Amino acid sequence: MSKYLAAAAFATLFAGAGARSAELTALEGRWLQAAAPVLSYSQKLALPIDIVVQPQPRANDVPLAMGFDKGRCKLVLTLRGNPQAETILDGVPDAQRGELIEAMTAHEVAHCWRHVRGAWKALPAGFVEVGEERAASSELLAASKAMREARREEAYADLAALAWTRQRNPDAYGRVHAWFEAVRREQPVARSGHDTRLWVELARDASRLGNTGAPFDDAAPLWREGLLKAE
Fold first, then answer.
1. Where does the chain hold its CATH 3.30.2010 domain(s)?
2. Fewest CB within 10 angstroms: 20, 65, 101, 140, which?
3. Other beta carbons less than 10 A from residue 205's beta carbon
4. Residue 34's Cα: distance from chain center in Å?
5. Which stretches of 144-213 are assigned E, i.e. beta strand?
6. What is the pLDDT of residue 160?
7. Based on the number of CB atoms within 10 Å of its own CB, is 213 exposed (0-12), middle (13-18) or buried (19 or more)?
8. Inter-CA distances, 217 with 21, 28, 138, 167, 180, Å
9. What is the pLDDT at residue 146?
10. For residue range 104-159, what is the model confidence (pLDDT) as tens digits?
């Protein structure tokens, strides 16, 4: 059974709480340590996040994901027996892995932030969908809409992760951006739910992101610009 660890109690994992800490593997501990700055920030925003450590992966589980249940966000860590836990960071020196895990965490927490604000799948103010999309069946039409909505949310989260990196780890921005570029370049289907290449390219120059100190807000201008070009 998965264990649910309240984000508010996260610090105790690394403050000598032996029994609880012992339940985590060394790899899980490293990932959570790297995620700690983002999780601490999420507490300041009062985001209702629980950390879920999966004891074993299911098919196609990614190492880090965000789920939602009964008004709470679930940050799901799936590292045990998961080959993606290593391949996702293939070729990245150990000293640079933490900055990428931190950015991945910011991406997932941005999803929670959108949910909590009631903005999930919503376009920004002033945007409306125009034109008529056609498909061979109602099922295909629904699938196309779902992919478009997913792509928008993934794009927002990618930009939020990059905005976080710009603010918190500015010296790492070029490396983190290059990693996002490489990951998104591997998407097998153009315009799929994770095809955020347009938005990642817009953020190549970090100065184009906002710099207000609120990284999830700082993603918004480039997100809107990408929406104008993508729709």
1. 3-110
2. 140
3. 9
4. 14
5. none
6. 98
7. exposed
8. 34, 29, 35, 12, 20
9. 78
10. 999 999 999 999 999 888 888 776 665 556 556 667 556 667 788 899 999 999 99
User: Does residue 52 contact residue 3 with C-beta atoms inside 8 Å?
Assistant: yes
Cβ neighbourhood burial of 185 (10 Å; 0-12, 13-18, 19+): exposed
Asked if residue 35 lies in contact with residue 102, where contact means CB atoms within 8 angstroms, the answer is yes
Q: How high is the pLDDT of residue 18? A: 36
Average pLDDT over residues 24-34: 94
Cα–Cα distances in Å, from 19 out to 15, 22, 56?
A: 11, 5, 20
CA–CA gap between residue 105 and residue 16 (Å, rounded): 24
CB atoms within 10 A of CB 201: 13
Which residue type sits at 111? H
Mean pLDDT taken over the chain: 85
Tens of pLDDT, residues 67-88: 999 999 999 999 999 988 888 9
Asked whether the beta carbons of 190 and 167 are under 8 A apart, the reply is no
User: Which pLDDT value is given to residue 132?
Assistant: 57
Non-local (6+) Cβ contacts of 106 within 8 A are: 38, 160, 161, 164, 165, 215
The tokens describing 44, both together, are: 């300041």
